[in-house]
Task: structure prediction
Amino acid sequence: MHSPFVFDLIIHVLNDHQKEPCFEEIETIRQSLKKNHDEIEVEDFGAGSAVIKSNKRKISKIANSSLKSPKYAQLLHRLVKYFRPKNIVELGTSFGITSAYLAKGNSDAQLYTFEGASSISNIAENNFKKLGINNIELINGDFGKTLPPFLEKNMPIDFAFIDGNHREKPTLAYFHELLTIANDQTIFVFDDIHWSTEMEQAWSAIQNHPTVTLSIDLFFIGIVIISKDFKEKQHFKIQF
Ligand SMILES: C[S@@+](CC[C@H](N)C(=O)[O-])C[C@H]1O[C@@H](n2cnc3c(N)ncnc32)[C@H](O)[C@@H]1O
Result:
């Protein structure tokens, strides 16, 4: 491994298998969502779920198909714990499982999480209450409507997890929009970078973007860093 930065990341973040008390609390909520067969009316916003298409959906089906698995959600938690970002953005809250992991990674951070479907975001809000989390602001509505006023505030973001609307154009648009409020160390994490040809194309364009100096392909997620500390562009593929 030529990069000391990536070497440290592998040792301290990727290969850290310690369980934390909050993992069990959050996973208990995931399990109860998976057992909840109530139906909710859901607006369909993007290509995120390959499994479910109808507008009435069972909570259990969404919980089984749309949320990041414990392995990846816990990795996101460790990334936040390691890098200590202050302002975090998550596009695609769903039931707030990964949001909870992100928020609990740094209690000094503020997480701004965006979700379009109000029936889903109501459940997420309730989960944040159950977990005693108070560093999350949930912004409800279509990203197309909620992101522009957020960007206008010009608040620099340190970490962004893009996990909604898994198509090429919207993914690239969110990246470009969020870049306008990125600082010179911002970390972006993109979900499902190999999920479809469109997402492959989006990931390739992101890796090749002039601001991106380091990219790490973990197959199910892609991490990019725009820090100028890295003199030349480097791309890594790491088995996780
Ligand atoms: C894959 S899920 C997010 C999962 C969550 N990050 C987790 O791991 O627990 C994607 C969510 O993004 C929302 N979404 C997709 N496109 C959207 C859009 N254009 N505006 C608002 N919400 C959107 C969907 O309603 C869905 O709940």
Q: What stands out?
A: Residues 48-52 have pLDDT under 50 and may be disordered. Residues 45-46, 48, 66-68, 92, 94, 97-98, 115-117, 120, 142-143, 163-165 surround S-adenosylmethionine (CB under 6 Å). Strands lie at 39-41, 56-58, 87-91, 110-115, 136-140, 157-162, 182-191, 214-217, 221-225, 234-237.
